[in-house]
Amino acid sequence: MGAPLIELSAIERVFHLGDSRVHALQSIGLCINAGEYVSVMGPSGSGKSTLLNLLGLLDRPDSGRYRLAGRDVTTLSADEQARVRSERIGFVFQSFHLVPRLTAAENIALPMVLAGIPPAQRGERVRQALRDYGLENRADHRPDQLSGGQRQRVAIARATIMQPALVLADEPTGNLDRTTGEEVMRLLEALNGTGVTLIVVTHDGALGARARRQLLMADGTLQHDRERSVDWPGKACALPT
């Protein structure tokens, strides 16, 4: 089992809608070890997407502390958070979020371009990713020339090209048929098998049940934290004080 990767303590997130205050996250305390496979489930409005955005440094809590690999990331500037996000976190979305005008190879290379990695190094890593994900004959195709499964494979390749410690997947099979969705989940689970921490947000109970650990959310709170397998220690890391 790995060391603690994610440590959340007393996390609160409040949105203001007109005169109303919506408590999207309330007193969230959570610890996830490096290498875990976790699903986050709950109905619409339960807070799971807000939690994902916070874990991915796309949003900030109103109070509480988020430590990523031992570093308090809640106090970082926007530029510092962007750097951590680029180096440590990969995202896979339901709607793929590929750049329409870029080819598959260019979409995969994009995080490295933004990180300033030299072209020669980018080229070799993109070629390897295309081989790894069976996309060699689709390298020069734009997203509108790819199937849904191929687009999600490009998205996974892009999410992992910087070799992140954490992959966040938001309804990764939501726009795919069952067979293609199964293929995508096998790819994500294979990544987890290499030691990458995988967190999948889903409303699909069958998809969530694949994870070794399931978090159930409702009304902005963590209702249940279940471990599927007795041989996975899961929550062994202590919450920060």
From TrEMBL:
Single annotated GO MF: transmembrane transporter activity
Protein name: Macrolide export ATP-binding/permease protein MacB
Protein family (similarity comment): Belongs to the ABC transporter superfamily. Macrolide exporter (TC 3.A.1.122) family.
InterPro entries noted in UniProt: AAA+_ATPase (IPR003593), ABC_transporter-like_ATP-bd (IPR003439), ABC_transporter-like_CS (IPR017871), ABC_transpr_LolD-like (IPR015854), MacB-like_ATP-bd (IPR017911), P-loop_NTPase (IPR027417)
Secreted among keywords: no
Organism: Candidatus Accumulibacter adjunctus
Domain ABC transporter: residue ranges: 6-241
UniProt cross-references to Gene3D superfamilies, sorted A to Z: P-loop containing nucleotide triphosphate hydrolases
Taxonomic path: Bacteria, Pseudomonadati, Pseudomonadota, Betaproteobacteria, Candidatus Accumulibacter
